Predict the structure.
Amino acid sequence: MPTTAKQILVIDDEEHIREVTQLCLEMIGGWEVITASSGNEGLVKAEVTQPDAILLDVMMPDMDGTTTFRQLRTNQATQHIPVILLTAKLQAADQRRFADLGVNAVIAKPFDPTILAEQVAAVLGW
Amino acid sequence: MKILIVEDDRVLARAIADALVKEHFLVDVVADGQTGRAYLETTNYDAVLLNTHLPKLDGISLCQQLRACDYQMPILLIAATDGTADKVKGLNVGADDYIVKPFSVEELIARLRALWRRSLASTFQSPALVWGELQIDCNRCEVTYRGQLIHLTPKEYHLIELFLRNPSRIFSRSAILDRLWSLEEIPTEETVRSHIKGLRMKLKAAGAPDLIETVYGLGYRCQPLEVAVASPASKLNDHHPKNYQQALTQIWQRFQEPILERVTILEQVAATYQRTGKLASKTRQKAEQQAHILAGSLGTFGLTEGSRIAKEIEQIFRHWSEIADFSSRLGELTAALRPELEHPVEKLPKSLPSRDRPLILIMDSDRQFAQQLALEAIGWGLRAKITSRLAEARTAIAAERPDVVLLDLSFADPADASFNLLGELSSQTPPIPVLVLAVGDSFVDRVTAARLGGRAFLQKPLPISQALDAVTRVLNQISHTEYKILAVDDDPLVLATLKNLLEPWGLRVITLDCPQKFWETLATTAPDLLILDVEMPDFNGIELCQVVRNDPRWSQLPVLFLTCHTDAEMVRQVFAAGADDYTSKPIVEPELVTRILNRLERVQLWRSLAENDPLTGVTNRRRFTQDIQQFLHLAERQRQPFTLALLDFDHFKQINDSWGHAAGDRVLQRFGKLLQQFFRAEDFVARWGGEEFLVGMYSMTKIDGAKRLSELLATMRQEEFTSDSGQKFHVTFSAGIAQYPEDGQDLQALYLAADVAMYQAKAAGRDRIHLAQSAPLTVENGLPTLDRLRNYPSAESVQLPLADILESSGDAIIRSDLDGIILSWNHGAEKIYGYSAAEVLGKSLSILIPVHHQDELPRILATIKQAGRLDNYETIRIRKDGEPIEVSLTMSPLADASGNIIGQIIIGRNISDRKRIEEMLKRLWHQNELILNSVGEGICGLDLQGQIRFINPAAARMLGYESTAPIPQRMNLIWPQCRPLADGTLPPSPKCLIDLSLTRGESHQAIAGNFPRRDGTSFPVEYAIAPIREAGAIVGAVLTFRDVTERQAIEQMKSEFVSVVSHELRTPLTSIRGALGMLASGLLKAHPAKAERMLEIAAANTDRLVRLINDILDIERIESGKVSMERTICDASHLMLQAVEVMQPMAEKAGVTLVVEPFAATLLVDGDRILQTLTNLLSNAIKFSPPETTVWLSASQQFDDILFQVKDQGRGIPADKLESVFGRFQQVDASDSRQKGGTGLGLAICRSIVQHHGGKIWAESVFGSGSSFFFSLPRIGNREQGGEREQGTGNREQGIGDRG
């Protein structure tokens, strides 16, 4: 196994959330973070950079997180990358819908930035 | 440190004892193994010195026995011979070290210290304590201040150590006595005072500050040091030995310096020697000593390699003259030492900050479930690891022992492998608790899992929270040594404070703010201490305390009062009610904690005396009764079996009589030990009284219990006992086993069942185990049958004369001949027809028949003549008083002995009443039908088979039948598949509830479900089902329902709005939370630029949140009509100019030109609101306009309305969004509003305002080349045509007047 730092792609349309997430994953998790501000940009970056995991926002304009996730899974080049949804929609029905989708985990917004990295690591077994 | 010396050579024992006392040890000496054993059982020693050859009980056997009952403290064997065989034997039975006579006392002490150091590793205590410049070396029991030794008496030394080890704790004098004085010394509290005084004086003499603080009325504690010697976290560590690694790291940080200094000394010595080739003996000794200390302390810190090197250095210094290459060896070793200490924390066993959180290992092939579980576990204060393969699981367990395992049965294939794994985990010592998860509820799986030691059986699918709840429950059970405190106060703030205050001390606080639930909470939690508020609604604390004290089970529970009043009367009341202590509000932390800890210490002492049987060491009846209640609750909750066994010695009286009571006691004692060995920690064993023992086994069936008992019995049979006179004898027992819930629901019932089974075992020849018989014949089943047999009337007694029967009948019984002449007339006939027998005998039946029915008689008689009969012939008859009555007649022919028909018997019954009731019922039915037909709810009557026998038109319509068309007499509804509810669970199907109603008579109200339509579609309903009973028996059920499609649609809309709002609120909150979290973590201290950016983000999002909340409140208020529009006369042009003025700065900033074409028109509007609408539209237009473009505001008259227009040259709005932009949170592009700082509610607010003014708002746009927003307002003159103008003017004046 190469010992280079893990790479995480954060896809969120909110600039501020991207920034905070990036900072906490970099500082606490010690990982390298790439960001994308839309589903489309995320799809491209995922394919090109082949990150170790993707943190994906659900409510985004143009292409929402659910659609983005499906496309990540249909693309052979990205279908193996674990995806964790970050979402502010946390009603039971939403939860079930996300669970049916087959993502690796769902983290609720707002999240505690000091444990986010640990949560991500726990889910991915890092 | 307290040491027990077991040595029969009194001279040697004395010598060792003296030497140890000099080294500040507390020493007890005994001369034989048995006495030694007794001492060890009653007192806690830190180490045992044990001679191998001892009278009564030799050292090897004693050591073996001690280890067999899990004695943990170090044991050092003293042997007379240096035989390897003896040594091996000694170490094999569990001794920690072995020393051969003759030996030097120094060596012995050194070995003891080494043992102590090793045992530290398991019960961590730091080897050195520091308070400012005061240093305490616990290995040497030396106290130095600024490097200067302070000579202390052993008691003074122990005092200082006690305070420093528990830096924030207050010790009362009696607590100090309990801890530092041995049992045979009988000091008074005054003694403590004088020792403290002595210690203070010595410290003062050495120039050290006063270490001990007197806490008035409570005792003493360590003075808080201004320069904190220990962070708060390390203080806590005294109470959380689990934080071993963390504590080590912290202590390492504290001691790093002196340790490195020692290394420097060694390096210097090595360098000097290499340079000069000389080594002064004083220097050498000092170096050896430094190396010795280093070896010890590095070992303690887990730096094994460093410790090893230091040890080697010590060795070569000691034997330096014998070592040829001393110089180079020394150089090598000292050089190797420092790198070992460079990054000690990394070399320490990995200690993540999360080290002390319990680890949960999830073995589940359902990756997604496992991952979500792992994620949420973090929020519950747990750590989680996931494995999805068996091999992986074993490695993970080997790498780090999990505190609890969640095992899905489908984890391994075949399922047997999962069970094997479960068995493996439960048989580890100590067993790793396993919670079993399974899809579906297979009874076999449940039983197997329970047998293999599974702690809970959880059925999938289940909410994550439920799984974690079960996990924490299991974890709490494991750490059962923690104290539970029940706090009752109606003020949640006080409860929260108590929780925060006490939980860091390892005390579990259960809070209760509702005194009504006190009793049940007390029973289910069984606290160790109770905190009560004096004043509470419904029941005050004093009343609760009295109730507690009145129950023998709780009479010993410590009760502490919290009170605002400390006047003498209140204090008297509190103590009169049976309280143990009180403390006044507001809560003062140290005082409260001290009072509680003191109480709990007493409890522990009292408990070990009061809850354990002194002879056998097992719990006594009182404690057992308490425990079993909790386990029965648990068994009920977890649906686990619980088995209770009753054991009784066979012929015990004879044992006492023939072998002496002392022998009997030995049997009991031995048996007590055996029981403790045979049963797991989660089982519980008690001496119930005399020679009777009880064993409770949770999650065990009685079959399993019987297996374990028979092993115990087999062992017991082999045990050999010796009487006082030296004769050998054996003892057996008989046992009965009962199981919850089959054999009994409570302790009493279980005990009775087990008792019966035990007596069966005795009767069957003793020395055996019997199971209670499930469902024995109950009294209710047996006795009545016998009674019935005994009391049944004999056949002879039923002999009433036939005539009597005829006479006493309520029916008319009339005999006539074939001509209709009445021959007999009974009492019933007299009552029905009103004639006496005398009046009618010999007369024709026709007197009873109305005129227009007279032709009936000949026809009836004709039928009778032909031997025909008429049953239940309903007709009209006339009473004597002329009243017509409705009767039902049964007429049968009457034959003589030779078979010739000679007449008839008429049995008649008056059915007038019945007929009347029938008529009433018919009317009532019609009424009911009208009601049923007109209600909007669907109503169906079901028969016992669940088929519809009645259906009202509403129900028919909803179910898809024409209400006018005939509805089938019986029809079955085919229930559609149930849809899961919002929480993921399946609702009970209507079919199943209907069945329950029909079979068990259950009623169900307001159930959500789906009903089928005739065409196969279904619709959501809310329904109710209730049984129909007749004379107590269920004959059917009524099903009422209503279609909730519309309601659901509204709810759906509502929930969608809530969902969107919550998303909109969470988005800025996420940024705020994230930014503040990062700042709070302290990680950004070194990155001021990043920290500043985080603050910026937090501030910007806070503003956004405020705007959003304002807008949401605004639109809610407008739409719900809570804000009335304050209409006044306004001029349109004025409003337009004002709006442009407000927006001008924004336009300039955006480089957009604002052009206004004021239009004069009079409006009756809320000027502020229209201004808000105009500025909103303008701000939108500016936001979406590229620089160098123009935004126009104009107005015109359109019929009776004034039409405003805001036009821009922006990118426009797609045609399909022209309407929806006015919805809430419906921007063309959701990211727009965020980038432009909007809230997504602006246009929705505009629409509300305009609509409230009776106007319209809309947008027109050519996508790509700008858009125009229009809104119309009614012109004031539009209702004022002709004669109504006057009134309009009046309105205007009134409007102005209102304003003024």
Notes: The beta strands of chain A are 7-11, 32-36, 53-57, 83-87, 105-108. Chain A has one domain: 7-121.
